[in-house]
Design a protein that fits this description.
208 residues, alpha/beta, Beta-carbonic Anhydrase, Chain A, 5 strands, 52% helix, globular
Length: 208
Amino acid sequence: MKLDKVFKNNEAWIKDKLSTDNNYFEELGKGQSPELLYIGCSDSRVTAEDLMGLGPGEVFVHRNIANMVISIDLNVMSVVNYAVDHLKVNHVVVCGHYACGGVKAAMQSADLGILNPWLRNIRDVYRIHRDELDAIADEDKRYDRLVELNVQEQCVNLIKTATVQKAARDRNLKVHGWVFDVHTGRLIDLKIDFEGILKNIMEIYHLD
Ligand code: CO
């Protein structure tokens, strides 16, 4: 890819935006009040705003390998804190995707260096749901299910934070688990039982 193409694309994008709204960038410059925090995978095929049909200003985005929410990751925890406490988003979404290289790599018997401690959190998801996963004979289907269960467990990790517990109590913040199917383009709502998980989690992880 020639990188000058990117700048040409950018010029075309500016023209396109201004053709429908002359004040587009003036408005954009005034600030942001997104309603949604999206935590997704860094995979180049899973393009946050694009797949949701949303534009600048509409979604606060954090992406990392395999859409993980790890309590000692200052990066994701800062994003959650800022989006929930300061931007006052109403919804937090963890969006995984089928054919996730991170999830697949996590289950391989290979030393992946700095990725080992990161991906070990996915092995923990496998361990928690081992009975269900081991019962799935088809390997692809087992990975698909692990992707879904990983999303669910990262939602649980969000609910363990004081930030999310407070916002759920004070202003009805909701946490959602979604999966993007790279084979069809479809976004799937896993319909995680937020209220049920919250109630269950609070019995042990109640912080506020
Ligand atoms: Co991925």
